[in-house]
Amino acid sequence: MKIFLLIILLFSNFSLSQIKKKIDTENCSYNGKKLFGKVKIVDSFPDIKVKIVNSFPDLKVKIVDAFPDKCGEWQIVDSFPDVKIKFVEKFPDLKIMFVENFPGIP
């Protein structure tokens, strides 16, 4: 019985650790990928899967034309991206909200 409970606790702890988000607020990154800079939107092999939301985002994003050097500022490009993203509806890595002012991690 003790072994059974130990196995259940082990698996529940493992699944909870997988759910934890790996957002580094100090460096504005997710799993080592910057959350600012040049971003390419792809359909396959993304670095980050993203869902667009209207409230409670993990990241507030502002689209800029040049010099995306602050947290949450994205410049959409077709080549030489810093990070590749895919928009999804289910099982996102991050939830984002597009804003005009004050981008970054809320």
Describe this structure in words.
This protein is an alpha/beta fold and 106 residues long. It has one domain. The chain has one helix and nine strands; from the N terminus they run H-E-E-E-E-E-E-E-E-E. The strands form two sheets. The chain has a six-stranded parallel beta barrel with strand order 4-7-6-9-5-8.
Short description:
The chain is α/β, with parallel strands linked by helices.
| Multimeric status of the protein | single chain
Give the SSE order as H and E letters. HEEEEEEEEE
Radius of gyration: 17 Å
Largest sheet: 6 strands, parallel, barrel
- The tally of helices reads 1
- Measured between the Cα atoms of the first and last residue, the distance is 45 Å
The fraction of residues in strands falls at 25-35%
As a percent range, the share of helical residues equals 10-25%
How many strands appear in the DSSP assignment?
9
User: Uncertain regions: pLDDT < 50 for 5+ in a row?
Assistant: 14-20
Query: Roughly what is the average pLDDT, rounded to an integer?
Result: 88
Structural class: alpha/beta
- Spatial order of strands in the largest sheet: 4-7-6-9-5-8
| Shape estimate | elongated
Number of domains as seen in the coordinates = 1
